[in-house]
Amino acid sequence: QEKPKSTPQQTTQSRKNNLTTERIKPAKRPVRNAIRKVADIAKDVAQGLNATMVNYKPSGGKTLGTYDPRNTLVTIRKANDLDTIIHELGHLLDDRFDILGKANNPDIAKEIKWFYDRGGSNPPSTMKGRAERLRYRQREGIAEFIRALVVNPEQAKIMAPNLYDHFTNSVNAK
């Protein structure tokens, strides 16, 4: 007996119902230098990556941030939302260094899924193809891994040692 096919809306709802809520939390680190505002740090990082970052309500109801690969525009709803800033810059790094494109190891795919299951956005309802939706989720997983790597590198490396090595090799190769 065949199971009925699920619609993208049902799949999204199912993911929301089963979403694991734990995420890697920031590590507690001693303060080394003068305290800077998150918005100033984000501005410096974006500038160093040749990206444009703006604080503006992104299109889409609950969207906290967006990244547009056509012009490297990062849009953030709240200037001091470090998690969202890093996540969106993670998309930029994935785009620039083709991190997902070079990830052809099943162990890396499992680690990417672990991060996707704990954060990121759902594929848009207009995205119909299964492969396209999976690729979207994987890109969200990469961005969440990069967020975790910035806020708690030790824990990110423990949770995803293969992805950590792959990321490091991809970024250092260029």
Spatial order of the strands forming the largest sheet: 1-3-2
N- and C-termini, Cα separation: 51 Å
H/E element order: HHEEEHHHHH
Low-confidence parts lasting 5 or more residues at pLDDT below 50?
none
State Rg. 17 Å
What shape does the CA trace take? globular
What helical percentage do the residues reach?
Answer: 40-55%
Structure class: mainly alpha
Amount of beta strand? 5-15%
User: Helical region count?
Assistant: 7
Number of strands: 3
Mean pLDDT: 85
Biggest sheet details? 3 strands, mixed
What does this structure look like?
- The chain is built from 7 helices and 3 strands; from the N terminus they run ααβββααααα.
- It has helices at 8-18, 38-48, 82-97, 106-116, 130-151, 153-159, 161-172, and strands at 52-55, 65-68, 73-76.
- Strand 2 and strand 3 form a beta hairpin.
- 28% of the residues are buried.
- The model has no long low-confidence stretch (mean pLDDT 85).
Describe the structure using short key phrases.
7% strand, single chain, 7 helices, mainly alpha, 174 residues
Question: Could you outline the blueprint of secondary structure elements for this entry?
Answer:
Blueprint: H1 8-18, H2 38-48, E1 52-55, E2 65-68, E3 73-76, H3 82-97, H4 106-116, H5 130-151, H6 153-159, H7 161-172
Parallel strand pairs: 1-3
Antiparallel strand pairs: 2-3
Helix pairs in contact: 2-3, 3-5, 4-5, 4-7, 5-6, 6-7
